[in-house]
Structure to design on (133 residues):
């Protein structure tokens, strides 16, 4: 997570005026449903737009395990997204093998550390496409 809970709270309180722009890139809030708890879990994530969709990366800094938010959306792909002051429902899916190279290049251009994270782990870091419903 970027700033963790504080980042989420400031973003929500200010409609993204604080928290959307972060270290030269842009951040959205992704709310998944906890696969064990059933509780909403909100995570700030770097994103890019791809047509009408939003794209995020399940990097966890190159950790060998997927981030919990990715495990949650794998169990239940219905998510809520906040971009600045706009909140909408979406369906999350992992990018296809055909989409992945193009989307990876787009995301690595936005946050070059993604390439370093991929080099640190044996798992293929998923790219997640958030499609409005």
């Amino acid at each position: 997570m970027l700033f963790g809970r504080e980042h989420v709270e400031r973003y929500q309180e200010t409609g993204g005026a604080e928290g959307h722009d972060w270290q030269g890139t842009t951040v959205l809030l992704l709310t998944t449903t906890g696969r064990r708890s059933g509780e909403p879990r909100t995570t700030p994530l770097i994103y890019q737009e791809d047509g009408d969709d939003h794209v995020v990366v399940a990097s966890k800094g190159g950790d060998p395990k997927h981030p919990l938010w990715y495990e949650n959306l794998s169990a239940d792909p219905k998510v809520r997204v906040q971009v600045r002051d706009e909140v909408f429902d979406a369906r999350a899916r992992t990018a296809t093998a055909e989409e992945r190279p193009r989307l990876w290049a787009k995301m690595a251009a936005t946050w070059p550390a993604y390439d370093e994270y991929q080099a640190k782990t044996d798992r293929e870091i998923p790219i997640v496409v958030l499609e409005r419903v």
Summary: The chain has a mean pLDDT of 96.
